[in-house]
Amino acid sequence: ARTAVVIPAAGRGVRLGPGAPKALRTLGGVPMLIHAVRAMAASRAVSLVVVVAPPDGAAEVKSLLDTHALPERTDFVVVPGGETRQESVRLGLEALPPEYGIVLVHDAARPLVPVDTVDTVIEAVREGAVAAVPALPLADTVKEVEPAAAPGEPEPVLATPERARLRAVQTPQGFARATLVRAHEQITGAVTDDAGMVEQLGEPVVAVAGHEEAFKVTRPLDLVLAEAVLARRRL
Ligand code: CTP
Ligand code: MG
User: Fold this and answer.
1) Complex ipTM, two decimals?
2) At 204, which CATH number?
3) Is residue 22 part of a domain?
4) For residue 175, is it within any domain?
5) Measured from the CB, is residue 81 less than 6 Å from ligand 1?
6) Tell me, what's the pLDDT at 190?
7) How many whole angstroms from its chain centre is CA 87?
8) Is 213 among the domain residues?
9) In which element (H, E) is residue 126 found?
10) Whether the CB of 219 sits within 6 Å of ligand 1
11) With a 6 A CB cut-off, is 84 part of the ligand 1 pocket?
12) Are strands 30-31 and 46-53 parallel, antiparallel or unpaired?
């Protein structure tokens, strides 16, 4: 089956602080979104990338794609996004031509994911997984708490899940297209990743090897790390 990638890039980036929408902020002088697009197009299996742009930024994203060098074998489509990540992904899925049987969803906010991770996810879906997510073991111990009513209040700890069984999940997440589309039609509750919706359908999801460099740029410190990773690559 042919493989397409949907890149949700429509978020404001509130946690990064004031400035342009996160996907348009630069790393090494290049917009984060362009890094993310290049990371996806670097996979020979990917023939279409759908970028879900900030609602009023579709024209700007189109011109960015035109001015930055991208592989000729990949097609690009830009659609405006929605209020939530979930809605943005759904709008991206609606733009997919019928011939794409495998779809990856990749956060623009994970600009530095290595192509090997992309290929590992695609391979798992090609081999028959309905959904595959890149995942890493955790460095920190995780506690479940009773969330405080007000910020700063101490929070009672309820449980400590066994760390060895926990994984931090990244993107790109890969899917049999029909299953992800069905998940977006049927699951209405709030979720924090696409695979979670597929889990709610009762469909199996597998975790494959993630990568440290697939971290999400969320807060200002992440920009420092991303610039350092880029600088190391350019040595
Ligand atoms: N996203 C999107 N549409 C939205 C919200 C988020 O396409 N309405 C995208 C973001 O652009 C990002 C990805 O979803 O590439 C992951 O979301 P996150 O890291 O939370 O980005 P933001 O929502 O932009 O950041 P914040 O939550 O700090 O505002
Ligand atoms: Mg967000």
Assistant:
1) 0.99
2) 3.90.550.10
3) yes
4) yes
5) yes
6) 85
7) 14
8) yes
9) helix 115-126
10) no
11) yes
12) unpaired
